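Ligand: zinc ion. Inputs:
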Amino acid sequence: MTTETGQSSRSKPSDDDDDAWAKLVPLDTRFSDIEIRFNDMVICSETKPSSSERHEWCRITKNLGQGSATLRNISSDAILVDEAIISKHGAVDIISGSEIVPGPGLQDYLQYRFTVMPAPDSRSQLLKISIDPDHAKCSICLNVWHDVVTAAPCLHNFCNGCFSEWMRRSEARHQHVLCPQCRTTVQFVGRNHFLQNIQEDILKADSSLRRPAEDIAVLDASSSIQSNLIIGSKRKRRLSTLVSPTLEERDSLRLQCPQCVATVGGYRCERHGAHLQCHLCRGMMPNRTNIQVPLHCMGCDRPYCGAYWSSQNVTHGESTPVCSPETFKPISERTVTRIPFITHEMNRHEQDITQRCIAKMGRTVQDVVAEWFRLFNDRQIDRSRMPLNHAESITASTHVCNECYNKLVGFLLYWFRVTLTVDHFPADAAARENCWYGYACRTQHHNEEHARKRNHVCRPTRGNHPS
Ligand SMILES: [Zn+2]
Ligand SMILES: [Zn+2]
Ligand SMILES: [Zn+2]
Ligand SMILES: [Zn+2]
Ligand SMILES: [Zn+2]
Ligand SMILES: [Zn+2]
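Predicted complex:
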């Protein structure tokens, strides 16, 4: 088996185009990408996985406007482009994502995916920067950051665990949270994903800077910053009823939490307590760590206030936004009336077929989803492709947001569809052959006819993981 790089021969010289503007990416990862550097280029590369033989088999010409190209078949046999047969001397337009097989059958030939590179001005440059690890250290524990968080407005960085501990101590003393490094009052703290990459690169480059696993476990256990926290929202003076609030005042009122304004449900916020901002209504709720009610959606880790305020018997805010409990509740209490938009990779042909299969069985979407959720809860469904965070921990009593619930329903409907026998299908859908690329097929999104003709609710049988 050869692992040589695919090569291309230059046909027409073009001096303005030295960088590759597109490439052919072999789906079999044992082969290398073929860069397309010229506006018109003859491709000479492996066509079969079984031999290292190369010959010229197609010519790719860049179309004006960069997004597409014309592919001409110059081999001695038919080739396949997006599953359509292109006979000898034939030509077809290709776009980024088009799948090309340099022969008439998939069995014996390699497959390539045509990929257009981003335009030069938007192409991200990979810069090599050097960084002194001393500048990537937490001033509390003096180690390279772990799960780094950034405090604002001063923008100093700390380990999540170290800063969480510091914040707890300030709150216990009813004090402002001051930055441990510069003593500025911290108004906001959040995880810094960009610096987390740097933190990881440093530890990869110099493993002597790593901390023992036991230390990391202790640190993780005290980390309480899951999403962005707003700290020490100031208590506003009572507005006179005679004076209507200015726009600015209304804005700052919007950012207040009902339990900062008054004692509600037996709780009043600490004067400088940390708050979470609800992802849905943008209202504030206290970041209480010692209560049972969830403040974050497990599927997406974003904060939602619906369950919290309902547990505090707050159903609407006076002048502050508060979500209804309907927006954030356990999976077991949710119902679904129609197939969510994101189901079957947003392919509406497949959604329509699933809808008709359900109708033909005399069932409802809710009925089908409830049945498949029971199987899910009994751990009879493989969760590896589930599009939610913490997939393994999700049960019937897990609170999820509307968006995550729709993703879960889409996931369950996939399993419903792939396990259906063909006699449950409507007549026009019963004879469709599976697309080789299954749910991962990109052609289904830009080629109506292909989406109609082939079934895409199936596992890929071709692609990056040759079977
Ligand atoms: Zn630290
Ligand atoms: Zn600071
Ligand atoms: Zn509050
Ligand atoms: Zn969610
Ligand atoms: Zn809310
Ligand atoms: Zn397809």
